[in-house]
Write a structure and sequence with these properties.
Helix content: 40-55%
Number of helices: 16
Order of helices and strands: HHHHHHHHEHEEEEHEEHHEHEHEHH
Strand content: 5-15%
CATH topology of the largest domain: Rossmann fold
Number of domains: 3
Strand order of the largest sheet: 7-6-5-8-9-10
Largest sheet: 6 strands, mixed
């Protein structure tokens, strides 16, 4: 076995495997950080524990960020909170400012928002805003381009007013009718767009977001996407969060950080009630997309939920069910209900944040969302 493999096994197994390989100074610090988190007792075996000491936690966070890559840091922080119950990491401003921000941390902070002491709130908001802005930098432009492109395409007409003619597209479409002898282009068809009212949106998008504890990451991404959509004049966006109660957060869409701290992660789930609320706000079914983001563990009346989805689809509403909107791998969800809703015409599948812009564009163009999802390797209704 090579020295490098021995070193890796030594770090994996902890101090009890000292005979495998000696450790250099940096590896010793790595080993100490791992030992503090993953089990053991005070005699040096793996897991002496982090305890409740703020200085010890602060040193541990510093070592973790120094000696491990960012992706590993985020996993270790999550384990420190979940395995050891170290919510102290998130309730002390000095400790929180040392944490590597990520979407999982934001979900935890939001779920603890009512327990965060006043002295830590500004730090918590700064951490959440940092992650939100990172998501916006990565995905907002992509979402805007996908949505505006889908709507512009749907507005195309071959009978535009003269002021609405797209001359470049018209010339390109009629080049085959060019008469070289006369040096003349015969225009057989005009291409342009339907004129958009300055006040009227062309599409309505309703996001129904399950805020039960398991959906924390989906809530974070939904808030950012909802805020981005709300900035587009061509789309009327409504964002609704729900557990056993339904709360319309549309008025909060100008600031996704405020929106997130207004949610209450955890609790039961009444999907039927949320869908009923959405039905009340559908003005023009053929121009409406409803995206239900939920793991479908229904605590409400499932028969009524299926009836409402059937009615919406029959009326012309494009209904899509996202079992998760996250990068966290295969989600847990109610497979039977997902299959039933898919059979009703509401394709149900998990979607990554990167794929969401293309998904929404497909829905806005009223194309086959289930076929798109299958093509992208997303299992629909299974």
């Amino acid at each position: 076995m090579t020295d490098e493999r021995l070193r890796r096994w030594r770090l994996l197994l902890g101090p009890e495997a000292d005979q495998l390989s000696g450790l250099g100074e940096d590896d010793a610090r790595r080993d100490s950080a791992l030992t503090a988190l993953y089990g053991g007792d005070s005699d040096g075996k793996r897991g002496a524990g982090l305890g409740a000491s703020s200085p010890k936690l602060h040193r541990w966070l510093g070592d973790v960020r120094t000696y491990f890559p960012k992706s590993v840091v985020q996993v270790m922080q999550r384990d420190a909170v979940e395995r050891l119950g170290l919510t102290k990491l998130l309730l002390e401003p000095e400790l929180l400012s040392s944490v590597e921000p990520d979407v999982h941390l934001v979900g935890t902070l939001v779920s603890l928002s009512h327990a965060i002491p006043a002295r830590t709130r500004e730090t918590a908001r700064a951490v959440v805003r940092q992650v939100v802005e990172e998501i916006e930098r990565k995905l907002a432009d992509k979402l805007i381009a996908a949505v505006t492109g889908a709507i512009d395409r749907s507005r195309r007409t071959r009978r535009p007013r003269m002021s609405d003619v797209d001359w470049n597209a018209t010339i390109k479409a009629n080049l085959r009718h060019y008469q070289p002898d006369q040096r003349t282009l015969v225009v057989e068809s005009l291409i342009g767009s339907h004129r958009q009212s300055r006040s009227a949106a062309l599409r309505d998008v309703i996001l129904l977001v399950d805020q039960s504890g398991s959906m924390a990451e989906s809530v974070v991404y939904s808030a950012v996407f909802g805020a981005t959509l709300a900035s587009l004049r061509a789309v009327s966006t409504r964002l609704v969060v729900f557990d056993t109660e339904v709360v319309d957060m549309t008025e909060e869409l100008d600031d996704p950080v405020d929106l997130l701290f207004s949610t209450q992660l955890g609790g039961g789930t009444d999907i039927n009630r949320a869908v009923a609320y959405a039905q009340q706000h559908i003005r023009r079914p053929a121009d409406t997309v409803v995206v239900l983001i939920s793991d479908l563990y229904e605590g409400g009346v499932e028969v009524e939920l299926r009836r409402r989805v059937r009615e919406m689809v029959a009326s012309g509403v494009m209904v899509v069910v996202l079992l998760a909107l996250s990068d966290s791998g295969k989600p847990s969800y109610d497979h039977e209900l997902a299959a039933q809703l898919s059979a009703l015409g509401a394709p149900s599948f998990a979607c990554t944040p990167d794929a969401f812009p293309d998904l929404l564009a497909t829905a806005l163009r009223r194309e086959d969302v289930a076929a798109w999802a299958e093509q992208e390797g997303m299992a629909v209704g299974k």
